[in-house]
Amino acid sequence: MHTPLCKHAEGHPILYMEHGVANGLAGIVMTCHSPMPNGFSSRVRMAPEQFDDYVAMVDEATEAAPPGFEVLLGLESDFFPGMEPWLRELHERADFHYILGSVHWHIPEYIDAFWRGDPFSFQRQYFDHLAESAESGLFDCLAHPDLVKNASPTEWRLERILPFIERSLDRIAETGVAMELNTSGLNKSFPEMNPGPEILALMAERGISVVIGSDSHTPLRVADGFHAALDTLEEAGYGAVSLFRNRERREIAIADARPGRAMAEQACGRAAYFR
After folding, report:
1. Where are the beta strands (DSSP E) in the chain?
2. How, if at all, do strands 248-253 and 240-245 pair?
3. Does the pTM exceed 0.90?
4. Where are the domains of the chain?
5. Superfamily for the 4-267 domain
6. What is the pLDDT of residues 102-154, one digit of tens each?
7. Quick one: DSSP state of residue 66?
8. How would you list the strands of the sheet with 210-213, edge to edge?
């Protein structure tokens, strides 16, 4: 869930909180795009000097939330080779509950560095970076894992790229880092959740934990597609969905995350949190 500080989202975190309450969630985690140094990808993220403003905005929503509903501080940080020291220091600047790592193929800096006119080579490089991001130790979870299929939808051939995806997933599984099922993929040029069902099943085979995320850039999308996402997880072989508090992973049985359970769990002092 994002804020206007990233320059391509709308709504104060209080509005995201209110929509989370209205949708029967027990809590949310704000994960706006991280600041980066030296103007890196500055058009789609907060500036470094706005970081404290971001933390304050989330605090305001936390204070405004009704009893039993929590708004937690998270961050979506870009993995880009060479930026690891910056991110390591950034992640120590606040008491985060959840750090989401992203490989954003579409930012100009990534395209300039890695696009060579060959979609297949670009896809292979992306999945190598996805594994590197897990191995960096910087992140709790990896965002929209197959986002690169939107770079050239007509060149996305799963059977061709599958061996490289499997190699990447093997490396990720070794780290214990979770991966995201991002429902916003249904609205992209390759219209399916990120990752698609085939990759999700491969993740399940390797015991990789999954966090559901709406990737909301507007409060109206809070919890969008979560019912279908829970079904998709079960079809892929999952019995539980993961969440993070204090950067510690916890699991909730999918049956307990179904609609109607969150409000009951609030009364028992337990909560489920979704990005």
Report:
1. 27-30, 70-78, 98-102, 141-142, 178-182, 210-213, 240-245, 248-253
2. antiparallel
3. yes
4. 4-267
5. Metal-dependent hydrolases (3.20.20.140)
6. 999 999 999 999 999 999 999 999 999 999 999 999 999 999 999 999 999 99
7. P
8. 27-30, 70-78, 98-102, 141-142, 178-182, 210-213
